[in-house]
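To: structure desk
From: M.T.
Subject: fold request, one chain
Message: Could you run this one when you get a chance? Sequence is below, nothing fancy, just the single chain.
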Amino acid sequence: MKDLFGKALLDYQNGNYSEDIITSTNISEEDDLPISYLFRSFKDMPKIEQKALKLCKGKVLDVGCGAGSHSLFLQKKGFEVKAIDISKGSIEVSKQRGVLHTEILNILDETETFDTILLLMNGTGVFQEIIQVSKYLTHLKNLLKPSGQILIDSSDIKYMYEDDDGGYWMDMNSQYYGELDYYLSYKGQKENPMKWLYLDFETLKLACETVGLTCELVLEGEHFDYLARLI
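Reply: Done. C-alpha cells follow.
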C-alpha cells in the first residue's frame, strides 16, 4: 500500500487540502469521496452510524478507524476506545485529533478482548473476499468479552446489477456479486487495487451461524444498507 488514503487525511488535517479522493470499482465509474466527510461530527453521520455508536458498551475496538471520528465521539462519552487501522496516515490523524489509544494494526493481529467491536462504513469490506468471511468472524468472536457484541454495517449491492427491464445481469456462476475490486487515486497517484466485500444481510447471517454467532438486524438504511449486531 502507498497509503494514499492516509496521505489525503493528513493533508486535510494539516491544512493542505486541495482535492478529494477518487474511488471506483470493477462495476462502477469513478466517484469523488469528499475528505471532509471523513472528519464529520455525530450530527452529520448517517442514522446507521449514529445507532451503532448509541449501542456501544464497555471497552470498544474501532476497526478501520480512518480519521477517528467514531472513536472521538465515544471517547468524549467516557468510553475506553482502541482505534486501529492498517493506514499509518489514518492513525497519525486520529492521534492528532485526540484519540488516546491507537495502533497501526490489521484486525487479524489484534489480541485484546472487548465488549464492543465496531466495524462501520461498510465494515464487511475488511473481509475482502467471501471465502475469508468465516476466518474473520471466528477471529472477531474470539476477541469478544462475555456478553460482548460486534456492530457491523454493509449494503446489498445487488441493485447495481439491475438492468432497465428489472432483471439482473450478474453471472450467478462467478464469484459472489458483492466481492469487488476497489480502486483509489489521490492527486494523480493510484493506490494498489484492493479487494472489498459488500455482504447482504442473509449471507452475513448464515456465515455467523456457521461460526456460532447470532446475527440480528438492527436497522435498515435508505439505500439497501443495514446495521447488524452479532453476539
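Reply (cont.): The first strand starts at residue 21 and ends at 25. Let me know if you need anything else for the meeting.
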